[in-house]
Amino acid sequence: MINIILQTTNLTKIFGKHKAVDAVNITAYEGEVFGFLGPNGAGKTTTLGMTLGLVHPTAGEINVLGELVTPNHTHALKDVGALLGAPAFVPYLSAWDNVELVSRLSPGVDRKRIGEVLELVGLTDTARKKVSKFSTGMKQRVGLAMALVHRPRFVILDEPTNGLDPAGMREIRQLIRSLAENGTSVLLSSHLLNEVQQVCDRIAVLNKGRVVAQGRVNDLLNGSRPTVRVSVPVPADAARILQSLPGVENVQADGNSLIVTGVESPAIMACLLQNNIIPTEITNQKSSLEALFMDVTSTN
Amino acid sequence: MFLRLLSIETRKTFKHPALWIGIGALVFLLASIILAEQAQVARSYQPANGGLGQDMLNALSYFSWIGILIYAVTASVIAAFDYPDRSIQLWLTRGVPRSCLLLARLITILFFGLLMVILAFTAILVLVGFSHLIFFGSVDASDLNLAALLPAILRVFWGALPYLALTMLLAVVSRSPLFAAGGTIIYGTVLEALLVRLDDMFPAIVRYLPAQLAQVLQIHNLRIYRLAPTLPIDATVMPEAQAVLAIGIIFIVLSAISLVIFSRQDLGG
Q1: What pLDDT, in 10s, does the model give residues A212-223?
Q2: Is residue B269 part of a domain?
Q3: Which terminus in chain B has less CB density within 10 A, N or C?
């Protein structure tokens, strides 16, 4: 039986008159990497803040590792590691001291483990330097180390590759996958959709405070609407004609090409030929998380 | 969990640069005042004002206002500095109960507050002795009542409690070290002095202001000076026990308000 690691039920947060999170229901399972996506201002950080007991929900419930979590009941978070936004740390202490300080909250974390986790994030050589002097990427690594030092069962990572170079990003992706392979559940919130597509098993997409898509990545991509790129001599004329084609949901200009969503390429080809427009090129766009993301967040 | 939190807060505070700057400022201010005062006495070719005991009493009176500065800085280092850099999230996202965190901070504030008072007393003793040696060639400790020192330390510390609690409350409300420390300093040095002037209009309230309560405790510190006459305490002066209790109540009330506010705050983002 697969355990539920995180479940939110009608989770809502209202700030004044603004509903930042609106009846969000998400479920993440043990051992998986769960992606949490959404445009800026969608309510991701607020949702994560409520999950981590930092923000009081207006309504709804959060269960983490089978226990209810509120800002005044955070017992379940002992087995959770988190990197929320820009990493939090004590700036006048070294990386080692920061990790050591946080490790004191968990019995059984020794100096060996601190060394291990700093090596894992690539900070062995700079462990004794003050974190205030670190680059953005190095600070991110410190945050990651602090989130992982106590071997949590569930890790929440918000933009963990922020500030890292491509090699660093790849290391973090590999780290996330290895965490999952070793039984640690991961919730990954990221704007880098390519990264999410490579790493995540399931995702939820948030837009304007609401979940607009949720499920296994492959299932969502397979179920997404067909998208075709067609190159024509006079895109404006072709766009006008295609917009009246039944089933077409969106026609977007892209230079000399049109991106048509909603119908397959044979129907488009037939329509254009009927109107004496001969396309120079017509290709089916491969389903991508980016296309899905743009699709669900623009229509919702 | 609580003891581990205490060890974390203590270590963080010991390593904070602002604490050491505050200690340096304390010693510097005391040294400046004491040495300047003794130099002035020496320059007028008079023998030392008194022995160690009397001069220590004089120096303690200066500490009553320097102390507010020190308490405010100390408490804001502990209570306020991890709001701007969001390191407060480090503890809360690891399942540390908010009440536990606040209590650990209060105890840390009390510990370091006491440490500051002990440091001040030590600094005053050393500086007064040193200045006597420099300016008068000898140190006369015959009028110093050593047995009265420990109770004096505790009285001064107890008198600091309202200011420590106020800084904690301002830190929780404002989430700003500057506002927390600055607010307490302004209250202690300006507002309270103005409020005391309303003694005629609101005597029942004014006598319970922290400065007035601390003043009650200070009367008994005269015993540091061995030659001080046996105190015929004015009947209008509040009994020491009552002042101690009132200070304790103020501390508890301010701390309870801090806890309620802290428990309800949104600390995300």
Answers
A1: 989 888 777 767
A2: no
A3: C
